[in-house]
Amino acid sequence: MKFEIDYSAHAPVFNIQTYCIHDGPGIRDTVFVKGCPLRCLWCANPESNAAYPELMTYSSKCTGCGRCVPLCPKGAISIGPYEGKYVAVTDRDKCVNCGACVGACPASAREIAGTEKTVREVIDQVKGDKLFFDGSGGGMTISGGEALSHPEFSANLFAAAHAEGIHTAIESSAFAKREVVDRVFPHVDIALLDVKHMDSKAHERLVGVPNEYILENIRHIHRELGVPVILRMPTIPGMNDSIENLHAVGRFAASLGGDVSVNLLPYHRLGESKNESLGRPRSLNLEPPSDADMEAFKEIVAGHGVPVKIGG
Ligand code: SF4
Ligand code: SF4
Questions:
Q1: Rg of the chain on CA atoms, in Å
Q2: Distances (CA, A) of 36 to 183, 212, 292
Q3: How do residues 185-215 score in pLDDT, each as one tens digit?
Q4: Which ligand is nearest to the CA of 105?
């Protein structure tokens, strides 16, 4: 049955990043949607967690001029001390993310992350880069947040990309109902799917949900839907980088058969400052794994006969 593209389907999008080289093959535009059912302790994009626009503040840029204070309809902003100077401080319990304070700031110290965008708006922007996609074997990727949290937007945006002759990829946790998976993945050319921990209880401890559903979805996506899969494992020191878990990831990848490969993504701290900008406590502050650590992890997983790459 022909898929009728709904160009009015929409989702909160917080970034359309161009010229990406780590989100699938070739040069790609990556569309980041807001909204995710998981809460990974190491999340690199915490501004993607909530499925609504959110205020982000940058105290290091703030000059304390006070212009934003009277503009807040909720009285959420005051001037207070921060690292030896005075800056705008936002009471997150009062803030309703209305954005009224943002335009007034001469220092770009405030912004709203995320705006509702339609498939039409996104595809009109993305297709402008088709020349780069075609020359590099690239295309468009939907990332997040979680693309499967917005199945109508994602399915229709992928279909719209195909209608323009653009290759499609998804970065996903694969945590979704089966009908959502079956709605979206027929429009996906390659799937980059996370494996965060192979032990379900540990998985739940680290990201908030067990993993059985996810692993079943990954098998379904690869075997029944026939989508090429790259498994992506963020390697988080002391959390999922045990020898036992690395072997389990290798065994799982090998059990899928076919063209499945594994990317090991070294932990980094980029999400930490974003948490501060969102008014949340910093979550982790771990020492990233060394190159030697990553090479050792790679050897363990590759020992199961699957291609392994360090990085995205
Ligand atoms: S975004 Fe928050 S702090 Fe800014 S004006 Fe609106 S309610 Fe006030
Ligand atoms: S307007 Fe901008 S620079 Fe001035 S106090 Fe508010 S956040 Fe700081």
A1: 21
A2: 18, 18, 32
A3: 999 999 999 999 999 999 999 999 999 999 9
A4: 2
Query: Which of 32, 35, 7 has its CA nearest to residue 160?
Result: 7
218 secondary structure, DSSP code: H
pLDDT tens-digit map of 265-300: 999 887 778 888 999 877 777 899 999 999 999 999
Strand locations in 125-247, DSSP E?
Answer: 139-143, 167-172, 190-194, 229-235
Sign, Cα dihedral of 36, 201, 199, 220: negative
Pocket of ligand 1 (CB under 6 A): 55, 71-72, 74, 76-77, 90, 95-101
User: Cα(99) to centroid of ligand 2, in Å?
Assistant: 13
Residue tagged 């880069």 (tokens): 129
Residue of minimum CA distance from atom 6 in ligand 1: 98
Q: Among 218, 214, 206, 226, which residue's Cα sits nearest to residue 42?
A: 206
Gap between the terminal Cα atoms of the chain? 35
CATH placement of domain 54-113 = 3.30.70.20
Return the CATH architecture of domain 10-50+115-310: Alpha-Beta Barrel (3.20)
Instruction: Say if ligand 2 is within 6 A of residue 67 CB.
Output: yes
- CA dist 18 and 124 (Å) reads 14
Name residues of the chain where pLDDT drops below 70.
1
CA separation for the pair 245, 41 (Å, rounded): 18
> How far does residue 290's CA lie from ligand 1's centre (Å)?
41
Per the structure block, which two tokens stand in for 33? 């949607």
Three-state DSSP class for residue 310? strand
The pTM of the full predicted model, rounded to 2 decimals, is 0.92
The domain locations on the chain are: 10-50+115-310, 54-113
